[in-house]
Amino acid sequence: MILLGMLTVPAFAQISVPKSLDHPGIKWDWKIKAENYTFDVITVSNYEMQNVTFNEMNKELVFLGNSTHDGNIAEIQIPTNLIGGKLTVTQDGKPVSSIVIPGTDSSTVMLKFNQTGTTNTSIIGTTYLPEFSNVALLVMVLSISMVLLIPRIKKF
Q: Does the keyword Membrane apply (predicted)?
């Protein structure tokens, strides 16, 4: 009886139309050169990203953006080999609230802010891995040399 009732009841469906965004996001892939490496920093934002620069000494990425509206959002994916550790985010020199999701190969920083006009967003890391590249090469050469030379040394 219940089954018969379920089969005879008309089904009503509503067509779901996705709400369009007032300011849809744009994806940029920035090539950041650091020492002998090139890293891809990917940004998705609903405002114009005009430039990204990298300061090795401060372990800092600086994003220059320009927005004509409020309700700005950005998602920034940073390779952990470029900068890593604890990431600090500032806008125009002031600390801002952000969501940082650490990963094995990259960290994702998510921002939401209501400022219009030009904005400088800085992301500062505590580590910059390529700074150890010269030391790693030296350690590798010494290790290989020791492996090759130690068996040739006569034992007394």
A: yes
Instruction: Evaluate if residue 7 carries a pLDDT over 60.
Output: no
How high does pLDDT run on average in the chain? Answer: 81
pLDDT tens track for 56-104: 999 999 999 999 988 899 999 999 999 999 999 999 999 999 999 999 8
The Cα–Cα gap between 122 and 90 comes to 5
Whether residue 75 contacts residue 110, with contact meaning beta carbons closer than 8 Å, is answered with: yes
Residue in 78, 73, 63 with CA at minimum distance from that of residue 121: 63
Domain ranges (residues) in the chain: 26-136
SS3 labels along 72-104: EEEEEEEECCCCECCCEEEECCEECCCEEECCC
What is the largest distance, in Å, between two alpha-carbon atoms of the chain? 97
Hunting for tokens 């007394």 — which residue is that? 156
Task: Give 20-49 as a DSSP string.
Answer: PPSS--EEEEEEEEETTEEEEEEEEESSEE
Tokens of 50: 């005009």
The CATH code for residues 26-136 is: 2.60.220
Nearest to 49 by CA among 72, 70, 78, 71: 72
